[in-house]
Amino acid sequence: MDMSFTPEQEAFRSEVREWIAQAMPPHIATKANNDGAFSNAEVMEWHKVLAAKGWVAPHWPKEFGGPGFDATQRFIFGQEMELAGTPQLSPFGLSMVGPLIMQFGNDAQKQRFLPKILSGEEVWCQGYSEPNAGSDLASLKTRAEKNAAGNYVLNGQKTWTTYAQYADWIFVLARTNPDVKQQAGISFFLVDMKTPGLTVKPFLTTGGTPAFCETWFENVEVPKENLIGQENMGWTYAKALLGHERTLVSGVGISARTLLRTKRLAKEIQKDGRPLLEDPGFRAKIARSEIKLEALRMTVLRSLASAQLGHAPGPESSILKLRGTDLQQETVDLLMEVLGHDSLTWFNPEGTVNPRGESAPSIFNYVRAATIYAGSNEIQKNIIAKMILGLPSA
Q: Which pTM does this prediction carry?
């Protein structure tokens, strides 16, 4: 198999690289060069720069405002973004509910929501997880009941709603029929965060970031026009969205950046009078992680190529989630190893450690959740056993 790129593809790479260098605002470029953490305002600023270029959703088809990249162009584009250390955009609109609306939404929903997701005018969050219904998503308790006007009234609580405090809209799973099999009585709603009765309370993660929120629905009225597809068919749509999410949470870009950052630090930190990166044992660890990363990257690429042919993500996305999140934790472990004792304080005061390592302890704590969210890795192993290997249920 020829894995080399054509002259046209290399020219595309040069175009992307040069554009990023020119388009990234100076204050964002400075943070990117120093592996700094980006604020929500900076993430959205970069979103709008990409949107103005038409490159904010490289995986969207042209008819919905995407750039029409093929799978190889998306691969090259993603690589160049990783190498430049650009801010990671919020996935909830661009990579999750956006593709779902394209697949299952009606024309009015596509016209109403997709352009504002692209432009960054409206930001989304996800209302899936609930207290006491973590990995067993189908046991959710949030309910939606029709009122006299035919609209839906939502009551219940969601948790782990990532960055809900910044979101304009939330996509929500709610029970619309309690008298049937759990999976058969769920519907999928698009909810305006400004609706009366909807309350958001952020809380700190163990990494010290306000990434997660608890979200309450108290008699929140949702127009019937905001139901996706058919009532009680939400589980089907949820599984499709989870497929997109699990492809996404493979975290190829996150692991690639962490490895790049680790190698930069290992060049600067000395061990026995020479850079740590020259230590054979450490180099072997880096090499093992890079091989795993390339294998994962190629598997994601195959999945994206399949999606481009119109195939919805299937149970193979569980493999991406499983291997990807294991690798995220492995690469951050390497980063912590490079930092040594400087990694033992969770919140290093500014100036006390190498600037490239300041946020590493917080990332280490945050990424513990990677093997839990989007369906725990134990759940993914069950899916692989039953759906791919054909093994019987326990």
A: 0.84
